[in-house]
Structure formats: C-alpha cells, structure tokens
Amino acid sequence: MAENSDNNAYWSANRRIIGISLVIWFISSFGFGILLRPLLSGIKVGGTDIGFWFAQQGSILVFLVLIFVYATKMNRLDKEHGVDE
C-alpha cells in the first residue's frame, strides 16, 4: 500500500509540473502574442511591439527555457522518489 501512495505522489507531482509548464507556455504564446497584443502595443522590443515579438520569437524562447526547467525539475523528482537512472 505504501508503494501505491508513493506512485500516486510521484505522478501527482509530475502532472503538476506539466500543468504549470503548459499554463506558462499558453500565457506566453497565446496570451501575450494574440490576446494581449493590443494592450502591449506601446512597449517596444527590437524595433517592434512586444506582442509581435512574443508571437514571433518570445514564445519560442520561453518554450526552450521551459524544456530545461522541466528536465531539471523531473530529474530532482526522480531522485526524490528513487526512479532516477
């Protein structure tokens, strides 16, 4: 029974990390690049407004950072639960 609760704790933490990552990615790509673009039109980055920058480049950079953060957090979680390589 203890192994089952440990598995549930592992997968719960795993789903939480994935959910937070997806929310951050959604906000940076769809939120800043599309929904909030008119509100962000006054802020300039690299000669264009920040909404356009997020739509074209910023969301990709956020996604790359999320990949490294996810890998780091999952390695730490795997070590905590004894399932690391």
UniProtKB/TrEMBL annotation:
InterPro entries: Na_symporter_ssu. The keyword Transmembrane helix applies. Residues 8-84 form the Sodium symporter small subunit domain. Keywords: Membrane, Transmembrane, Transmembrane helix. The chain crosses the membrane at residues 17-40, 52-71. It holds the Pfam family DUF4212. This is Putative solute:sodium symporter small subunit. It comes from Celeribacter halophilus.
